[in-house]
Amino acid sequence: MLCTTTSPLNSFGSPWPDLNDGLFYSDAVSTTSDSGLTLIHFYSSKYKNSAPLQGWLQRIHNGQITIDGEVVKEPKAILRDGMELVYHRLPWREPDAPYLLQVLYEDDDMIALNKPAGLQVLPGGLFQQRTVLMQLQWRASKGSSSLETQGSHPVPVHRLGRGTSGILLCAKTKVAKTSLAAFFAEGTSLIGDSSNANMEQSKRRKISKIYRALVNGILKQDKIIIKQPIGTTRYPGVAKGLYVASASGKPALSKVEVLERDSQLNQTLVQVEIESGRPHQIRIHLSFIGHPLLGDPLYDVGGQPMCFDSEHEDESFAEDGYKCISVYVAVDGLVFHLIIFFPPL
């Protein structure tokens, strides 16, 4: 996203600890399906994608699972209706990420930040602590701003990809969060309806999202409107599916304008305004028209993936109580996901 400011920028942020706090996953034993099962059967069958049998045995022996608040190290413990189970995923060192955030604007209701590339907005995958949300919460707890006022809820109201830099709006109250979220949603809700009334309403949107991107190749047209729907497809390592250009997907609209062409480097600088907010929309739309983002390791011409990208790997196979090696092998056009587990030394 683009932003300009004439006032000095304030920054905040605390260095990341070496290890995060780990994660806690809760379950309740129900009469119909879980009561009478052993502890190891419950976890190894219900969460087999998280670890194999040996991995769950190791976690139980490590004391990472509690029943009604008490650590249980017996894999064959019998579960009864109403029991509360908690699995503690051990702390780990998250990948490197910047932590300083520039404040572009702030009042009692919201704060606009300049998010740096490499910093994730919300927790997910390997990034559970090194996020914008965590820095906002730390700032509020220190009482360094009006964030600490009663009813304050510092929360990002939209997302920017981890590799994207730009303006990020965050709400500091529940009322602001509801209003800003509605402003962002109104543009997406109009996509796919070409009626004159909605066309006029689209022009009066309260929030516009404008980005700049460097793409491969030379765009011949000065302005392009891309209306390619975006859906999901099965993809190795992505449990919920990878977002791609898909005729059966949800409506999406991007307006592309050429800012500069570099024939010598075979690159084009473009400005992109998106009226919807589908995941990876700009990457998918620009690759769909034959001009992928420069350096994009995932999307190829046509808005489809060209190979496995570790950025999208399912992080459910955490090295927690056991070790694993995850390997992707391509044979005759098919991709096989091999996961090899072995006990820690």
How is this structure best described in words?
InterPro entries: PsdUridine_synth_cat_dom_sf, PsdUridine_synth_RluA-like_CS, PsdUridine_synth_RsuA/RluA, RluA_PseudoU_synthase. Pfam families: PseudoU_synth_2. This is Pseudouridine synthase RsuA/RluA-like domain-containing protein. The structure is a single chain. The protein is an alpha+beta fold and 345 residues long. It contains six helices and 19 strands. The strands form six sheets. It has a five-stranded antiparallel β-sheet, sandwiched between helices. A four-stranded antiparallel β-sheet has the order 2-5-3-4, with no helix packed on it. Strand 18 and strand 19 form a beta hairpin. Helix 1 packs across helix 2. The chain is globular, with a radius of gyration of 24 Å. The two termini are 47 Å apart.
